[in-house]
Specification:
single chain, 111 residues, mainly alpha, 5 helices, 2 strands
Length: 111
């Protein structure tokens, strides 16, 4: 079987991938376009049974987990709008709004 490549089940063909529109997703927290690095945030933590994910910048992801516990993220803060309403997160979103997509900085633990 020289020259044959087995494809794993579930992988899309190159033609199918090329046919998809290329859309640069925006960060679910800050709304800026995603750069070269993307992390996927579980709106409800996996430890609490969550499955749905949203794309976020690494700095935004660290801010989410520095600002709220998993129990809070599973309950009242499962909604992104409620999470943005937290004072620490609202200050962060206002601060990061004019930064480039791949901006990196340390995040303070503030729970």
């Amino acid at each position: 079987m020289a020259g044959r490549v087995k494809r794993k089940a579930g992988l899309a063909s190159a033609e199918a991938l090329a046919a998809r529109p290329v859309v640069s997703p925006d960060c679910a927290l800050c709304g800026r376009p995603i750069g070269t690095q993307v992390e996927w945030h579980h709106r409800v933590p996996r430890s609490e049974g969550g499955r749905e994910t949203v794309p976020v910048h690494p700095i935004c992801h660290r801010t989410i987990h520095a600002s709220a516990t998993n129990a809070e993220l599973a309950g009242p803060l499962a909604d992104i709008e409620a999470l943005r309403a937290l004072p620490a997160v609202a200050r962060f979103v206002a601060w990061v709004a004019d930064k480039p997509a791949d901006f990196r900085a340390p995040v303070r633990r503030g729970r």
